[in-house]
Specification:
Order of helices and strands: EHEHEHEEHEEEEHEHHEEHHHHHH
Structural class: alpha/beta
Helix content: 40-55%
Strand order of the largest sheet: 3-2-1-4-10-6-11-9
Number of domains: 2
CATH architecture of the largest domain: Alpha-Beta Complex
Largest sheet: 8 strands, mixed
Length: about 325
């Protein structure tokens, strides 16, 4: 694991090249909104690559029409190969230093590229640049941002510091607001098909533990809440247990010893539930007391949450947020 970044004041900051990859499959009705938000950035990205994954609607025609008004590259799969393949195609094509994989139904905030670029310039070796959770309704008319328990200031965590952070103040990523270090993402093998809807989350944690993570408030992408989305539908399906087992198997591969050690130490899984306990039977060495405690508590909370009032949940979240900030020396 690498330590914190260091840079003398006399060294000039190199402006990083930020790429955006937009995988698309039959989102013709929504992709105009997604690409419009990219075109409206206060700082333009270095490149925009749309990978159409064999759409059968009018997506390609719409994208080509949009390309007349904004610079973008369109790459088409002749037939549908799945979103993981589309993301890997985009990764193979990008020429930038950092890349954001923005779904065709996501919407970037206006300053997302500008804020992420500033963070990447200050910490060019960081594994990821990430921001707060942000969601929008299915029709895009309502939005909300759920800030993480950090102050509204840019902050870098070394790989070691990020492991410690996950131990004491665990949070999950909205990968729609994560920029990956391109060289590191390729070195990690890109997105693994067997991890399916958790493939991006796996490399998010792996990259953060390897090279560190840089938090930047405001560099958000609004995630559209659709029950039919790939990740939402997949994580609720019967196949989820097999994907969890694949996650564990990926950490056991030769050459991934450091990655596995970080995941185990930080007690990281993509799901904390009784169902996850079933998957862990295939890899008892992954189960630590910290992970067991997290599984029990979060499983209990998920069952109880529907019976807790919104006001009580808000009060509890505020207490937790103040406590976490105090532990980080930020309160």
């Amino acid at each position: 694991m690498n330590g914190p970044e260091s840079r003398t004041a006399a060294e000039p900051r190199r402006s990083p090249a930020l790429s955006i990859v937009v995988p698309n499959y039959n989102h013709g009705q929504l992709i105009g909104e997604a690409l419009g938000a990219i075109a409206g950035q206060t700082v333009a990205p270095f490149e925009v690559i749309v990978v159409d994954d064999g759409s059968t609607d009018d997506s390609v025609a719409r994208i080509r029409a949009l390309a007349r008004d904004m610079p973008l590259q369109l790459h088409c799969h002749p037939k549908n190969r799945g979103v993981v393949a589309a993301m890997n195609t985009g990764l193979s094509l990008v020429k930038g230093d950092f890349v954001l994989f923005s779904a065709a139904d996501d919407r970037l905030a206006r300053q997302t590229v500008e804020l992420a670029a500033a963070a990447a310039a200050e910490f060019p070796a960081t594994g990821i640049v990430f921001s707060d959770h942000a969601e929008m309704s299915a029709d895009g008319s309502e939005t909300r941002v759920m800030p993480l328990d950090f102050p509204a200031a840019r902050r870098h965590f070394s790989g070691r510091d990020f492991i410690a952070l996950m131990q004491r103040s665990f949070f999950g990523f909205h990968v729609s607001s994560v920029w990956f270090n391109v060289g590191l993402l390729r070195a990690l093998g890109g997105f693994r098909a067997e991890l399916r809807w958790h493939c991006d989350l796996f490399v998010t944690y792996a990259a953060a533990f390897d090279r560190g993570a840089t938090y930047v408030p405001g560099a958000i992408a609004y995630f559209r809440q659709l029950p039919t989305s790939y990740g939402t539908a997949g994580s609720r399906s019967a196949a989820q247990v097999d994907v969890l087992r694949a996650w564990l198997a990926a950490t056991r591969e030769p050459g991934r010893e450091a990655t596995r050690a970080a995941f185990v130490t930080a007690a990281i899984l993509p799901e904390y539930s009784h169902r996850a306990m079933r998957a862990l039977r295939s890899d008892p060495g992954y189960l630590t007391f910290r992970l067991f405690r997290r599984l029990v508590w979060l499983s209990f909370w998920m069952k109880m949450a529907p019976f807790v009032s919104t006001r009580a949940r808000t009060w509890a979240r505020n207490i937790r947020s103040r406590y976490r900030k105090a532990r980080l020396g930020m309160g």
